[in-house]
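Lecture notes, part 5. Sequence design as translation. It can be helpful to think of inverse folding as translation between two languages: the language of shapes and the language of residues. The source text, in structure tokens, appears below.
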């Protein structure tokens, strides 16, 4: 390498160092021109030898303490970055927002040279003190900056090449700079890219740490970029209020942070936050495809942190209390209180009995088996039991045995040692059972647990030890177990599809959640679900719709009802607050009609058999059909295939 031949200020085309044809992708000359002008205005002389002495030891400790969060998250990234450039006469430097070096890692031989210009903790590299340099100039410009050799303002820094990238907090505030500085002869054009990626990595780590609760969405227009540094990350409260996004997220969302703060999950991604929860509750979590507010299609993966799951569970059950909660209250505690047995008790007698029974075994070493049709709230009940138990401070780990492929369920549950099988992660994995240690393990769809694993699970429950795959060492574990199924386990035992011994170990207390059609608290439930759906203005259903709801048999139970209400709310016009039949989805009305048709046919047969007059037959049929349709004349007319006028003419005085 020949060294640089930089032309100094005042001559055109300057700042382009010629390093054996390897011209670095340097910062624009305008940017560097401006920086040099600033140096002149600071009163700096190019040949000056500035003060390189670091601040005292105790001040350095204070500096590290003041930047503890940044330093903690940056250090592992700095170490990885250093591994990439080791033995290249370079060093990795982290500074605070003022350019004060907080930490530095470097090759010994270069450190000696670097010490000449004091690239060491406690020395300030702001532009005012050290002239144009990547750290100081990146702070002023708030942009990744490369300053090579004689692009440095001070002659004493001409032997350096520096690549720096600013690090921003989730509030968009510059909080530090990551820099790689080395001997200018060791310049490598990939260094800047490495530094930028590393700074992004630090920002993402800081972002995850700041938003370790609620909902975090990882998104990108290309699915293969999810999980990479290119992904956008956005965070929301459990109720869907936008909190923040990383820099790439902001670019993808196309709005500045203050504008985004007025948004919600649904206004940005066109999907209610409850649908997100349902996706993760019901589907094996595949990537979501959503449409951004600006029409761009994105793929996304969400992380629903503990309190948001709890919040979602109860946002249906007790939204008014959730909304009344002042924001400064600890969310976990409040959410836990909301997802409790007390709040699931909405006035139905079967539920009341069930909750009484469950309350008696809380905190005892008694396994609970929850049965019930799909969507009756087995998952929600399991969470409430945990939250009301003395284990509430411990983890609640849910495993859906039906959604994990049979080949993976063993490693998911029991974990595995390093290299236990082909494809196993290095360093092994802690299984779900151990993750639940000290808390509750919820085995949903236990009827889908492969028979081969049932014996291993029984051993865990009886001996309270887990043996990870590939390990010879059992690990003690202390978990409460709640299971749920909508299968008939006794039938399965008879078919040898479920082990009898495991069944008796699991069924300490068996409770059956009533289907929605049998519940006497439907009105309360509907109103609570609607409250959860409404943003500000509370919605209600018309008396006619409520009558139809009471007659429907709700095969999908709560899940069906809440989806239906969510759709109906969207159908409401501007300023409308009451859900009428016209707001209900067609398939629901068709189901209702199909049932009514069948009932009408049966009624006709019965009435005709009683040998009444034709008028009697008509009146009885109309009256019963009206009843079946909740008094709705249009629906009755449709079901009977006559006009509404015919119904009005022939209907008895008091139809329902
Ligand atoms: N009591 C309730 N009040 C309001 N919403 C409820 C209630 N119970 C359940 N839900 C809602 O209904 C949906 C289904 O509930 P959950 O997943 O607990 O049912 P499940 O019985 O476990 O269903 P599956 O057997 O299909 O897994 C969820 O969105 C849940 O929040």
């Amino acid at each position: 390498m020949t060294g640089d031949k930089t032309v100094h200020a005042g001559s055109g085309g300057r700042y382009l160092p010629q390093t054996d044809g390897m011209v670095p992708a340097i910062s624009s000359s305008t940017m560097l021109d401006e920086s040099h002008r600033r140096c002149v205005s600071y009163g700096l002389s190019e040949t000056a030898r500035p003060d390189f002495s670091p601040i005292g030891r105790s001040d350095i400790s204070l500096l590290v303490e003041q930047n503890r969060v940044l330093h903690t998250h940056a250090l592992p990234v700095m170490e990885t970055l250093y591994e990439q450039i080791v033995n290249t006469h370079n060093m990795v430097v982290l500074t605070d927002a003022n350019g004060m070096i907080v930490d530095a890692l470097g090759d010994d031989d270069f450190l000696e040279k670097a010490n000449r210009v004091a690239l060491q903790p406690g020395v300030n590299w702001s532009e005012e003190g050290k002239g144009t340099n990547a750290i100081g100039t990146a702070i002023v410009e708030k942009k990744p900056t490369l300053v090579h050799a004689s692009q440095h303002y001070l002659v004493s820094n001409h032997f350096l090449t520096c690549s720096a990238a600013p690090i921003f907090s989730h509030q968009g505030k510059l909080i530090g700079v990551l820099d790689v500085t080395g001997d200018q002869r060791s310049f490598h054009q990939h260094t800047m890219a490495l530094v930028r990626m590393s700074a992004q990595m630090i920002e993402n780590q800081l972002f995850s740490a700041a938003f370790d609760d609620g909902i975090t969405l990882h998104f990108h227009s290309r699915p293969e970029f999810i999980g990479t540094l290119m992904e956008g990350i956005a965070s929301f409260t459990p109720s869907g209020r936008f909190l923040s996004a990383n820099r790439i997220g902001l670019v993808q969302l196309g709005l500045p942070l203050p504008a985004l703060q007025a948004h919600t999950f649904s206004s940005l991604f066109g999907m209610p936050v409850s649908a997100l929860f349902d996706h993760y509750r019901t589907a094996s979590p595949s990537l979501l495809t959503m449409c951004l507010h600006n029409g761009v299609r994105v793929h996304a993966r969400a992380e629903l942190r503990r309190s948001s799951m709890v919040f979602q569970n109860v946002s249906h059950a007790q939204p008014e209390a959730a909304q009344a909660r002042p924001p400064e209250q600890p969310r976990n505690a409040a959410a836990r209180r909301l997802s409790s047995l007390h709040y699931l008790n909405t006035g139905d007698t079967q539920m009341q009995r069930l909750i009484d029974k469950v309350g008696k075994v809380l905190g005892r070493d008694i396994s609970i088996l929850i049965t019930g049709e799909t969507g009756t709230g087995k998952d929600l009940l399991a969470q409430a039991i945990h939250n009301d138990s003395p284990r509430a401070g411990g983890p609640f780990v849910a495993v859906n045995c039906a959604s994990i492929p049979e080949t993976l369920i063993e490693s998911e549950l029991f974990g595995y040692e390093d290299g236990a099988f082909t494809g196993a992660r290095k360093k092994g994995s802690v299984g779900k059972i151990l993750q639940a240690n000290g808390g509750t393990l919820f085995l949903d769809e236990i009827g889908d647990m492969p028979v081969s694993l049932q014996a291993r699970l029984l051993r865990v429950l009886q001996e309270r030890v887990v043996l990870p795959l590939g390990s010879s060492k059992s690990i003690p574990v202390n978990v409460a177990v709640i299971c749920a199924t909508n299968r008939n386990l006794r039938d399965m035992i008879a078919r040898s599809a479920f082990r009898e011994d495991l069944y008796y170990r699991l069924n300490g207390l068996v409770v059956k959640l009533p289907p929605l059609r049998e519940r006497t608290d439907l009105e309360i439930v509907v109103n609570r679900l609607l409250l959860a759906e409404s943003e500000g203005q509370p919605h209600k259903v018309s008396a006619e719709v409520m009558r139809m709801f009471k007659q429907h048999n709700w095969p999908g139970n709560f899940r069906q009802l809440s989806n239906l209400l969510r759709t109906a709310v969207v159908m409401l016009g501007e300023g409308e607050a009451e859900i009428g039949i016209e707001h209900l989805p067609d398939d629901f009305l068709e189901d209702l009609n199909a049932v009514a048709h069948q009932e009408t046919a049966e009624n006709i047969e019965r009435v005709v058999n009683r040998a009444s007059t034709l008028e009697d037959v008509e009146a009885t049929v109309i009256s019963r059909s009206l009843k079946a349709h909740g008094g709705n004349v249009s629906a009755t007319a449709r079901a009977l295939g006559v006009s509404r006028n015919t119904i009005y003419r022939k209907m008895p005085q008091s139809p329902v």
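The translated text above is only one of many valid answers, since several sequences can fold into similar shapes. Residues 278, 281, 313, 316-317, 344, 372, 374-380, 444, 486, 525, 529, 558-559, 562 surround adenosine-5'-triphosphate (CB under 6 Å).
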